[in-house]
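Title: Prediction job returns without error message
Component: structure pipeline
Severity: low
Priority: P3
Assignee: unassigned

Description:
Job completed but the reporter wants confirmation the result is attached to the right record. Sequence as submitted:
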Amino acid sequence: MRRNWMMVLCLGLAIIFVAGLAPARSEQAKQITCAGKVVDEQDQPIAGTKVTLHEMVYNEVTRSYDTKVTGKVTTGTDGAFSFSTSAVSDVYRYGYIVAEKEGLALDFATWNIREGDKDLQIKMGRPKELVGVVVDENVLNKWVKKYNIPFPVGIVQGDVEKIRFAWGVRSLPWLILTNWEQTVIAEGFGIDEMDEKLKKNIDTEHAIQKNKATPTKPVAQTGLSDPAKSFLDAEAILAGWESSYAGIRTMRVSYCTRLVDYQPPAKNPDEPPPVKYQHIERVEDGKRYHIRYSIAEDGFDRPESLMEHAFDGKTTREYWGSTTHGSIVAGLIGRNTETMNDLKVYMLLRRRLVGGRNASGTYLIEDPNSKPDLSRTLSYAIPRYMVSVLPKLESVGSQLCHVIEVIVPGKDHKGIPRQIKQLFWIAHDKGMCLMKYQWYWDNKLDREIEVEQIAMAKMDSTDVWYPKKAYRTIFSDEFGTTKCELTVTEFIPNVEVDEKTFRFDFPKGTDVFDRVRGIAGIDLPKEPPSLLGKPLPQLKDFNLKLDADKTKDKMILVCFFDMNQRPSRNCLRQLSTRAQKLKTKDIVVAAVQASKVDENTLNEWVKKYNISFPVGIVQGDVEKTRFAWGVQSLPWLILTDRKHIIRSSGFSLAELDEKIQATEK
């Protein structure tokens, strides 16, 4: 759960890429200040408000965001607060100013530290909904007497939330039923289910007593407190699970996670809690994804709380509603949003994460050739280590489950050898749906997932069960104990997608930094139109010496480049070494210098490096020409078929052979 909080903060950090339009300064670090006031809904100052500055800094070594509390103040009668920190221009830094006061809803504001000094106002109001109420014990006793409540009634003494957590109370009212041995056999059921639960308990006890009095051949009865024996082995369970879930490649999911309990670490009792709400709408297909995200309690109802990110296979688009900023960047750029999908975490469906680098930085993606977490763990452990199916079935979320225990040697994040024990509760009657999961370090529980309610989704010709409501608890000496509730409102496995799925339009008034086109501003002109499936525009405007007879019935490969950029120079020189081989495949190669340079300088460079194919240069307005040709970055490759219809564009030189084969087909 702690990682979830970092991701959120990292989302906010993404704003820095937009704000960093100006060149980085090289002066020595100086002090910058964020000052402001906390006011009520009538703009009157609020005294006694605790205001905290949470600062985030990008760590180049770990490629993650480190966060820490760097300032705490309490407002006076004027409601004013002020924080100062050093200005560091070459490190991505961001701050959240959080305001808390008992009786008022928590509120916060953002500070892009690299932009320098900032003045802001935090407006606080009454919470929309109270979590609980304080009851006077005398009032409670009078109410019990007035309504003749015929059974004992007590009252929670001490910390209400901690006691509710310890008793597993997830909502009110909450009923708990035990048998004669005081063992809990049912909880969280409705009052209308009371008779059924009592009857089942009585019938079970009668059956147990009868079996004790008259020994008979054991019969597997799922309603008994001594549950039925398991009947599948680990290999069979794994095979069943993979037949249901291993084939999921794309999905559309909508869910909310809610922090239901938080206990700070003993060594740092002031450690702030993680974010309380996360609303996610996500579509994913391999590397491509489109996610809408909000940490507001009311989800996407407030436009300023919306964050939207998408990668269409070529460019990443990002939008932050809190500042109405956006950006367009080539390739993946290393955001947590690129792999964020809590439903897959709860279902152990994530595949192994692998890293890569591009011009924008380091990124992580799921390896499409790897197995999902559950499958990878069991298939690796079964032939090598201690894997056993416990002798009895257990009930979780009203589903009878096989329990698999896996014990393997491992190392923690500090490299210390430790024993890892994992337990998987698998509902064999529901397509091997995972109902519960536990991870232990040296027999100490580290994390737990428990499903309360499941639902069914259609996938091809298979029914797939997934958690409709589930809970995830993480026990950490460093970050404390966190328990989150997952509520899923939509899950469509193997959903159909197209190119439009992974793009979105920026809202009107968005200040966008388009790094692909090298332009910035509010409501930028539309991106270049796609030329795929259209005839290749005329090349004669670039002073290219291409004979029509020599290009007839041949594929054409055009490379837009800039001789002043190293990637472009490397691309052209590599193309030159392959030009003869491409010629044997009836592929004509041509290049176009797509930025302003002296033509004589270009010709000398072409001659110096023996570029073996025609090289032209853009005549006239460079930006308009690049826009008309759909050029979004340099170098930019375009490949046509033999009828000179464009079949591929914007691909890398490493993908050329693949694109040629696809075009020939």
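Comment from assignee: result matches the submitted record. The chain has a mean pLDDT of 82.
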